[in-house]
Amino acid sequence: MKKINLNNFTISNSDPFCLICGPCVIENRDHTILMAESIKNICDELNINFIFKASFDKANRSNYQSVRGLGIEKSLEIFSEVKELFSCPIITDVHNENQCDLISKNNIVDIIQIPAFLSRQTDLLISAGKTNKIINIKKGQFMSVDSMKYAVNKVVESGNKKVMITERGTQFGYNDLIVDFRGISELKKIAPTILDVTHSVQKTNQTSGVTGGNPEYIESLARAGIVNGVDGIFIETHTDPSKAKSDGANMLDLNKLEDLLSNLLAIKLATSKL
Fold it and tell me: By C-alpha distance, which of 185, 179, 175 is closest to 198?
């Protein structure tokens, strides 16, 4: 069984599932602190290992006019404050080798995430791997399960074996994504595997230039993920998804998070006895 040690817990199916959670993008300092505190309180109450997620730059937006983020330097300051206040690990995504270099120079970010659209970019994967931080590769919507072993190997060959994979759906036609749960057990043979239940419900390539989504399916996917033995769940959430500056159409409302996690814990407990 593959596992990764992070702070005082292990990312592995033998342990309670971890939660990677937060807003899609850092909108401002106050909102980020509010989100981190709210999620941390829920996770502490339920005894779930929590990793705070937010992006400093959304470099793959459909529309030129879409919000990108606060940038890496300002965001690292906010991440540092989140980490100091709530003692939670931080995960964020990178888009080029320079960003990997900046992140490597401090202990603020614990996990570097490779966006799905960049999951085959050799130089980026190697540069991320050389930071010696944990690397989370999001499976490209265009990639098969088997092909992910080559992406992982690029990081491993850089000298870093701390790699995990996040399933976030496979492109189905021009405007839809599906999750093939047959792939979870195969991905777990390669590396610890997380299921992203919010990006998996996206409706891509909309004529409006803004990605749509079906958030009503988030819980169904999350339940299926736990039954199929994922090592963690990835959820983007917001106090008001309708006002989110990125990916609001596929986010989970923060008010629904505690009930969802409680249900997942009950399923985890039941399936662990099988």
Answer: 179
